[in-house]
Amino acid sequence: MWTCPVCNQEFSHKSQAHTCSGNTARAEILRGKSEHTLSLFEHFVNEYQQIGEVNIQAGKGLISLAARKRIVYVSRLGKNFMDVVFRFKEAYTNNLCFNKINQIADRGDFFHHLRIYFKEDINDEVRVYMKKAYENGR
Q1: What is the pTM of this model?
Q2: Is residue 91 part of a domain?
């Protein structure tokens, strides 16, 4: 494990390339968001903490949750929703939760996009993928 001396994020590899959270604080990203959206974010984090220990890291305009490695990205906090992105080695196309899946050309990984409007949107199907992402990040 390596810890960045600037932002104190932990990484698997020494001097791993990243965006330091020292540049953008989590509070700055969350500032001005609606009460509804903030409650969605809090609920999402709490759901992940039921799976296992996660660290919240802020970067340029996004927040990520990490186990040993980053496992999911909160890419957008809208007025009444939040967008999250899971990164997997394969495309999970047989589901009802992801609204978009795209492949990252240089790595072959797949981004799975999920939009959450209500706390109930984090259902059993979503929890399966949350657990998969957590296991991949350990």
Answers
A1: 0.82
A2: yes
Answer whether residue 26 is part of any domain.
Answer: yes
Residues found in the chain? 138
Q: What are phi and psi of 39, to 5 degrees?
A: -70, -35
Over residues 30-53, the pLDDT tens digits come to 889 999 999 999 999 999 999 999
Q: What angle do CA 103, 41, 49 make, to 5 degrees?
A: 85
For residue 113, give its domain range: 21-136
Buried b (16+ CB within 10 A) or exposed e, 39-55: ebbebbeeebeeeeebe
Q: How confident is the model at residue 70 (pLDDT cuts 50, 70, 90)?
A: confident
